[in-house]
Specification:
This protein is of the alpha+beta class. Among the domains are: 119-184, Roll (SH3 type barrels); 192-332, Arc Repressor Mutant, subunit A, CATH 1.10.10.2520. The chain has helices at 2-37, 87-91, 192-205, 216-230, 235-250, 258-262, 271-276, 283-293, and strands at 42-49, 55-63, 75-76, 82-83, 97-101, 107-111, 119-129, 133-136, 145-149, 154-161, 166-171, 174-179, 183-184, 304-306, 320-325, 328-332. Strands 12-11-10-7-13 form a five-stranded antiparallel beta sheet. Strands 14-16-15 form a three-stranded antiparallel beta sheet, covered by helices on one side. Strands 1-2 form a two-stranded antiparallel sheet.
Amino acid sequence: MLTGGALCVLTIGTISLCGMVGSKVGSAQSKETAAEVNETTTVNERTQPDSEGTYTTIDTVAWRKASINEYEFAEVSAVGTTTAATTSEKATKKTTTTDSADETGKTTTKAETKVAGYIEPMSSQVYYAKSPVNFRADSKKSAEVLEVLDTGDSVVVDGVSSDGIWYSVQHGKVKGYAMAEYFTTKAPEKSEEEKTAEKKAPEKVSEKKAVISYTAEEFDMLCYVVQSEVGDCSDASKIAVANVIINRVKSEQFPDTIYDVLTSPSQFDAIYSYYNRSTVPTQNTIDCAARALAGEDNTNGATYYYAPQYCDGSWFESLQFCTEVDGQRYFKSW
């Protein structure tokens, strides 16, 4: 009996030892399996003890090693600050950003430089109001109304908003904005009085030989500018101002037509009186312009003038002085 009992104990011990060895071997195999699973997609079954102390298989879980493309990284801004941008956040920026590719082919995001309402400069051109329209201080419907333009009123357009809704315009000496849909480049029909004035002036000038060539429109423009500049002054002042314009046409330093000289940027603001049909030239002004075109020059070839009582003349005074008429000083380049 003792020998049999000892044998039973020995047998149980041997079985337990084998179980422990098997457990370690199984554990080692599990680690190897886990290492392989870390690289490839597989299925790993988890077990847990039930209420009676035995183990049962539960949920089957699929898992794999994540690709680097699936991680989100913080983006570094242009000024060196770090911001985290999720895919959904980037999607909301579509209206304010634009994508471009760098030298490596990687797409980068840059802020747009233009926004709705941005005014694009354009070559100055005369437009006419098709119907009454508000002339505003800014390109917004809520902006202050400077005046209401009437049908047929002309303005000089020098810019248009990026969305094509607003024009940047000059009306007389006032700068403002108006909605583009209310304007056209087609001039309204001229009155009989205006047509008659246009016919008379060139005929009067053609009686004498002109020092430069010009069109009927250019003569009209010249008269309006002279009237607007020195309409209340003497004949000598009117002839002098007309000659500054004529001498510029003759000079290689300036454009070679009356039209181009008078419409050059920031030179003769009085040209707006022609487009707006304000300060209509008198017959005396028309006669003085004709005399200047016929060669009567009382400025000694002047191409600049300024009135000391209205502006700083330090730049003009660096030029060659020609003459002074009615308090206005005339100069030309050395």
